[in-house]
Amino acid sequence: MKHNKTLIWVVMALMIASLLTGCGKANPAKEPGQPQEQEQPQEPVDIEALYEQGMATIAKNAGEELVLFPEEEPEFINELFPGIMDIEMTQYKFALSPVTNGPVEVDIVEVKNHDDVQKVMDIFQARVDSLSEDDTYPENAAAWKNNSRITSRGNLVILAVLMDYWGDIPAEFILD
């Protein structure tokens, strides 16, 4: 049994490494918070698998499973992220805290048109900014301000925020 678990972790590590390894020319340095330019067509990314790998890393680091609620209702998603449903997406996953606006969230979007990457990053940033300024629960606002990260690679954009309890945002959710 222990050998099987070790084998599973090794296979997951290899899958993660392959997701994070770029191919082709090295990208020139870019400003933080700016989408990377897409030089070559991107390999399709299974965002559900990417999400599951990141959540497994969080569980491993924290010693317990983090439960987030998937949100698939377009109208509700658009309430949380105004304008996001106006952007053509090839796939998306919004996983929200069980507590409304709680500082634990993973949102993954793949846009069809690379020109929309910055629009998604701006929409994600507007959510972070809004919840960072919410003084109803100061500890939540601090987590949104200090523990959130928005990154992109190719046509993929991720917003991840975790309370300190859950540790650092895992590498699977950091694209740049």
Helix/strand class: alpha+beta
Helix content: 25-40%
The whole-number mean of residue pLDDT values reads: 83
Model regions low in confidence, pLDDT < 50 over at least 5 residues: 9-15, 17-30
Radius of gyration, in angstroms, nearest whole number: 16 Å
The end-to-end span amounts to 36 Å
Count of alpha and pi helical runs: 5
The H/E string reads HHEHEEHHEE
Strand content: 15-25%
Order of strands across the main sheet: 1-2-3-5-4
Number of strands: 5
Instruction: Please describe the biggest sheet, giving its number of strands, its sense, and whether it closes into a barrel.
Output: 5 strands, antiparallel
Integer count of domains: 1
Shape: globular
